[in-house]
Every structure is written in structure tokens, then in C-alpha cells.
Amino acid sequence: MKSNIDKINIKSALTVATVALLGTSSLAQAESSVTSSAQDSSWEFDSAFLFYSEVDRVSAGEAILNAKKTFDNDEILNLKLTIDTLTGASANGAVAQPTVQTFTRPSGNGQYDIAAGDTPLDDTFHDTRVQLNGQWTQPLAPDYTASGGFHISKEYDYLSLGLNGNIAVDFDRKNSTFSAGFSYFQDTFTPEGGIPKPLASMLIGDSDSSTWDESFAQSRMGSEDDKTTTDILLGFTQVINRRMLMQFNYSYSMVDGYLTDPFKILSVVDNTGKAQDYLYESRPDSRVKQSVFAQSLYHFDSSVLDVSYRYMWDDWEITSHTIDSRFRIPLGDGFGKESYIQPHLRIYQQSAADFYRPFITDGEALPAFASADYRIGEMTAITVGFKYGMLVNNGHELSFRLEYYRQTPTNAGFDEPGVLNDVELYPTVDAIIGQVTYSF
Asked: According to the UniProt entry, where is the signal peptide (predicted)?
């Protein structure tokens, strides 16, 4: 139970960056991994509901319940349940055209039309995910803490199973902490309609014909596929003085298996920019990602500044820079008991994957890999918003978060022939994020 939301354990807050990269924890667990003093053995709960909505595209609702129990010997059990739903329309990867376009649904059952000039969106995007995470943390010795956990996530067409472990070592009178973490995930895809053959043509025509099912099956190479992900994380946390704390992380991630998005396609256009065909995308079957991360928290007399920077690079030639900042400002009891406001600004910039291309030109030799998914293209994104929190009901914390997100894809150096000059190839994505959190 929280008794003073202005008194922040800044070392605990920074540890979130370490455990979050392993996908295993929340602030409550992070606090336990760097605190050796015994706490109340009762359960502590954090609950949240988040709503995310893109303009004319995907909407998502997410409910989270996190439970933590601290035992008398400083052993900690952390359980987290997440349930979310996604609905709406998702860009299928094809380019806009000055005429109506027709596409086959991923299941092969039916087709849909996109109006002239519109970005092609598949409106069948919907899913429900149930995820359970568990983590056990315990001291091994006065300056050693270990933790291990599991991950289970199930969607309609996706199953993810994972294990993780972490060990932290304190030294220099607990002013310095070194941590090393490991996680392993096994994911299985069973997309509706099966796994498309890479760069095979999308079947379009009379879906009621007697040969449709057989022809559609020829564009598939099976009903399921899988991938594995191995993550390694090294972290170092240093107390600079009584007001300032810094953390540095290095992460290495290796992914093997099916990395193609079975629902994304590319347009094949002629020299006038008109679509002649649609091909299912193709991505490499492995990816190695690395990143370095630095974060600093500074505690002023009453407010707290949190600034971080992450640089990521991978063997797909994607690089990204992320600057994230939060500034927690107490408002005083006039705005709610021990209330605060926390402005948030995040800036993200990303380069394109070496096989990203918004379209393929008719007649050219097909590449081994190609994707028009804007998520691996060149882009910038900005998030701006604020969080307001206060104490209610004998020390329980209630908070509200509202943010605006804008993602701006950009041309990574591709010429746009003919009619493609008259349509929007890189539309922006705008979204509103709202969240209510209650801790008790």
C-alpha cells in the first residue's frame, strides 16, 4: 500500500528499464528487486484500463491486473494478467490508386473494395489476447538477488510461451548494481487462411467459382509456422548522489523462424504507377537486434525529472533513436491529496529496413525479400501528453493518463512513377491514448 506518492525510490524506477526489456515485470516488481528491507506480507494490486484509438484505423482496449506479495524473508511473488481486444482497419501494404481496388480477405472467404485515392485498409482486423506473466524474486545472499518467471500469451491465431531469469549484484554499499538477464520465447502462428507463399500473387476473381478453393490453396505453404526469440540484457545502475541516479543497459536479441507478416502485401505497378498485381510480402527468417540504453533520474526538492535515450540497430539495417522524458510535479492537496501531474514527451526516429519498398515495378526481377509494411519503413513519431495522480481511500493511488501520438512515415528515396504522384503513399497515423490506473 502506497503512503506517499511524492517519495519515489528512484533506483527502483530505473530498474523498470531492465525488467521491461525482458517483458517480465512492472514497477511493483522492479521495486522489489532492488529493495532488501522486509515489507508488509499482504498483497498489493495495481489495476489499469487503457484505450488506444487510431483515426479511421485500429482501436484497442486493454485491462491489466498486477498482484504482488512480499513474504517475510523478502521473497516476492508477482503475477500479472492482461486482456486486450483489437478491432478496426489495418493497412495491408498496397499503394493507393486513382481507381477502385479489390482485394481478397486473408481467409480467402470474400473480397473487399477500396475507394479511389484511399489507402488500402483491411477492415477485418480483430483479435482478443489473454496474457499471464509470473515472476518469483528472492535474495540469494546479502548483495545478490535472483528472479525467474514465465510468460503465456494466447490470441486467436497466435500462441507465445516464454521463460526468463535475472540476477542482480549490489556493491559499493549498494550504490552500484550490476544485473544480467536472459529470456527465451517460443511463438506459434496459425493465421486464418494459412501461411502465404512468399511473393506469391494474391488470388483475385470470382470467389464463388468451383476452382477458387483449390487455386487459393496453391498460394499457401501450410497452416502454421513458428519463431523463437532469445534475449540477453546487461545492466548497470549507479547512485550518483542523494538526488541523482543513472542506469545503462545493453541488450542483444536473436529471432529465428517465421518473421513475415502473413497479412501484408505489396503492389506491383507499371511505369505509369498503375497496379498490375499484388504479392504477399517476404522477410528474412532471422533477425539480430542490439541496443544501448541510458536513463537518468534527478530528484529536485519536490519534483522528479526522468530522461532516457535508446539507440537500436539490427541486421535488417534498421536503426532507431528514442528520447523519452517525464517530469513529475507535485500539485499539493488543493488538487487532491498529495496529487501530482507528469508531462510526457517521447520522440522516435527510425530508418528503413534494407528490403523495405513501398511497391515493386512490373518487369523487374523479384527480390528475395520485400515488404511495404510502414512499420519497418523510414519514419518519425512523437508522443505528447500528461498523467495526473492522487491518493484516495487511505493511501490508494488513482491516476489518469492522456496522450496524443503521431507517426509520420517518409519516403526512403524511392521514385514515384505516374499516378503515384497524385496519391498519398506515406499517410500519417494519429492516435489518442487514455489510461486509468488504480493501485491498492
From this structure: 1-30
In a domain, residue 72? The reply is yes
For strand 265-269 and strand 158-171, is the pairing parallel, antiparallel, or unpaired? unpaired
Q: Which domain holds residue 169?
A: 10-439
Spatial contact of 168 and 191, defined as CB atoms under 8 Å apart: no
Which parts of 121-211 fold into alpha helices (H)? none
Number of domain units in the chain = 1
> Strand locations in 107-243, DSSP E?
111-114, 121-141, 144-155, 158-171, 176-189, 225-239
| 56-90 pLDDT per residue, tens | 899 999 999 999 999 988 899 999 999 999 998 99
Please, which residues bridge with residue 187 across strands?
160, 227
Q: Cell triple for residue 305? A: 525529472
Q: Measured at the alpha carbon of residue 350, what is the angle toward residues 349 and 355, in degrees to the nearest 5?
A: 165
pLDDT at 18 over 60: no
What mean pLDDT do residues 393-418 have? 93
3-state secondary structure of 342: strand
Environment class of 140 (CB within 10 Å of its CB; exposed 0-12, middle 13-18, buried 19+): exposed
The average pLDDT across 122-134 equals: 90
CATH number of residue 74's parent domain: 2.40.160.40
Residue entry with cell 489499469: 48
The residue among 181, 66, 34, 71 whose CA lies nearest residue 133 is: 66
DSSP-derived pairing of the beta strands 111-114 and 101-104: antiparallel
